[in-house]
Amino acid sequence: MMMWRTTTARVALRDGRLSVPLVLTAALLLTVATAGGAHAGTLSLDFPSDDSAWTCQGSTLPLGETGSSRCWTAGEDLVETFAGVVPAGSSFTRTRLQFRMDDYTIAPTVNTFDVEINGIVVGSYSTIGNGGNPSLRTLDLTFEHAPIVGPDVTLRIVATSTVAGGLNSWTWFSGGAVTLIPAMDDFSCYGAKDLKNPKFQKIDGVSLEDEFATRDASLKKPALVCLPVNRDGSGTIQTTAICCYQSKEPKLAAKTDITTDDTLGALDIRVAKPKMLCVPCQVSSAP
After folding, report:
1. 68-115 residue pLDDT tens
2. What band does 66 get if pLDDT is binned at 50, 70 and 90?
3. HSE value, Cβ hemisphere, 13 Å, CA-based, for 250
4. What gap in Å lies between CA 178 and CA 154, rounded to an integer?
5. Is the distance from CB of 105 to CB of 125 less than 8 angstroms?
6. 75 vs 17: CA distance, rounded Å
7. Does the global pTM surpass 0.90?
8. Are 147 and 92 in contact (CB under 8 A)?
9. Which of 70, 72, 147, 270 is most buried (most C-beta within 10 Å)?
10. Confidence band (pLDDT; 50, 70, 90) for 12?
């Protein structure tokens, strides 16, 4: 269950140069849940599905539960359009595809495929034949690409190679999943001080759930205001800032080691205690 609370607080940056009112218009998410690896703002689509249009051996049919026919020619494809699924103003710059296909081709045949979204190639992949032993491939692919906008999303996987005669064939299966991940900016964070106009009121019993733990938190006071920042000429996409609140939460049952990977590099990090809750917010100059 999700519950929302609208809060207005006034804060000042600790360097004294700027004061801003924080208006949390869709603001405080009191229950945060993750399911199937999806996060807030992502768009999950069932693809390939039984209804995907499957072109193989000159015919176009619904894919159905399993691919009963065999394909081997460049240009054979799998397509499905999802109408009106992208909220206004949203864009996505990363896509994760999870699906299965059979490759019965004889080793060392290499079969290549493009992945398209709204007519744009966002990535490619390949399978290598081994005579069908085993034939089933489970693929988990992630591509970064130019922003994808809606309102519609057309997903397509198309073969870009042809299997030589006598070297067998391949096919797709339904039951896949595509996750579109929203465009994100870098953020510059400023320490924040409550100007008490009105004073932020402590909020107890905030229920939080993430991949590490389920717990209750108490929100104490504003801590940070993070603004989209143009780093090294990369530009910005979002107009929404992030407002972070100091929280009192229990430590994790055990310290957890994780690996982070971003545009600044990959790191091994240990986490032990949550310290803040950050929510989207709108920022404007104080009167």
Report:
1. 568 999 999 999 999 999 988 788 988 999 999 999 999 889 999 999
2. low
3. 13
4. 11
5. no
6. 59
7. no
8. yes
9. 72
10. very low
d(CA 115, CA 18): 46
Domain map (residue ranges) of the chain:
9-32+185-283, 47-175
Q: List Cα–Cα distances, 271 to 37, 130, 211, 255, in angstroms.
A: 19, 43, 12, 6
Length, in residues, of the chain:
287
Residues 102, 139: Cα–Cα separation, whole Å: 11
Ramachandran quadrant class, 118 (left: phi over 0; alpha: psi -120 to 50; beta: rest) = left
Do the strands 43-45 and 19-29 form a parallel or antiparallel pair, or are they unpaired? unpaired
Angstrom CA distances, 258 to 31, 59, 261, 266, stand at 24, 48, 10, 10
Judging by DSSP bridges, how do beta strands 203-209 and 31-32 pair with one another? parallel
Task: Return the closest-CA partner of residue 122 out of 89, 157, 152.
Answer: 157
CA triple 165-170-176, angle to 5 deg? 165
Average pLDDT of the chain is 83
CA separation (Å) from 210 to 32, 206, 218, 251, 257? Answer: 7, 13, 16, 14, 15
Cα angle: 246, vertex 248, 253; to 5 degrees: 130
Of the CA atoms within 13 Å of residue 128, those in its CB half-sphere come to 2
Average pLDDT value for residue range 259-268: 86
CATH number of 47-175: 2.60.120.260
